[in-house]
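Hi Y.,

Following your request, here is the sequence exactly as I used it, all 125 residues.
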Amino acid sequence: MKHNKKSKILIIEDEEILAEMYKDKFLEAGFDVFSVFNAEDGLILAKKEKPDLIILDIILPRENGISFLRKLREEKDIFSIPVVVLSNYDDPLTKKEAKQLKAKDYLIKTDFTPAQLIKRIKKYL
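Below is the corresponding structure, written out as tokens. Let me know if you'd prefer a different format.
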């Protein structure tokens, strides 16, 4: 099933090998994909590209994913972009904080194959 407008996904992931793998899988699945390796670039690109969804790692250089979420929610033109956290940081407080900042989901990387991840992400688009 082809739809005219490709969904745009922004991946914020500092592990380049993982970022590339996810990017390739989402491209194969028919998405437009942008990826950046830190929160600062993520915010800049989110403003510029207005993605349909952001996949966000928590452990990032300099500024973490929670900090990114806080800043995103303060930006009136992009605050409503859905965010799915994808991290190996399995911490109950961080999960709670992400949910309070309106993250749609908090997924643990090791629990999902790329195919399962894509299926899960499609629910939010």
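Residues 16-28 form the longest helix (13 residues).

Thanks again,
Q.
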